[in-house]
Amino acid sequence: MKIILLQDVEGLGKAGDLKEVANGYARNYLLPRKLAAGATASLVANRSQRVAAEQRRQEKQVETNRQLAERLGEITLTFRAKVGTQGRLYGSITSQDIAGALRTAEDVTVDRRVIELPDPIRSLG
User: Is 3 exposed, middle or buried (0-12, 13-18, 19+ CB in 10 A)?
Assistant: First the structure.
């Protein structure tokens, strides 16, 4: 029986996948638990439209990320902080500080969670 998964099912697939399963598995397990629906022509057409829309969204996101990466490659940020005698900062520069500086100085909005720092910046350089 052909079904479309409505939720992720371990060992079978993710929500939206079109799968061929045994009739008993579909009727006795997947359909009663609302994990899947029978693959009617309208559901298959709707699924293909959703897949195409998701693919267009992902392509647009990749292009946006590429443009942002190019723009970020040209930016130099300068931070003012108190420094000790050994060239170590009294505080640290974190991803939140970097995101804030990008927002104010360059009008670039970047979520602090996507800025990857192995450790906060604690020394000059």
Answer: buried
pLDDT (0 to 100) of residue 73: 86
Sheet holding 36-38, edge to edge: 18-20, 2-5, 36-38
**Do 52 and 88 belong together in one domain?**
no
State the pLDDT at residue 43: 85
Q: Identify the pLDDT of residue 21.
A: 95
Give the three-state DSSP class for 34.
coil
CATH number reported for the structural domain that contains residue 79 in this entry: 3.10.430.100
Residue 87 is part of which domain span? Answer: 75-123
Ranges of the chain whose pLDDT falls below 50: none
Compute CA 34 distance to the chain's CA centroid, rounded to the nearest angstrom: 27
| 3 beta partners | 19, 38
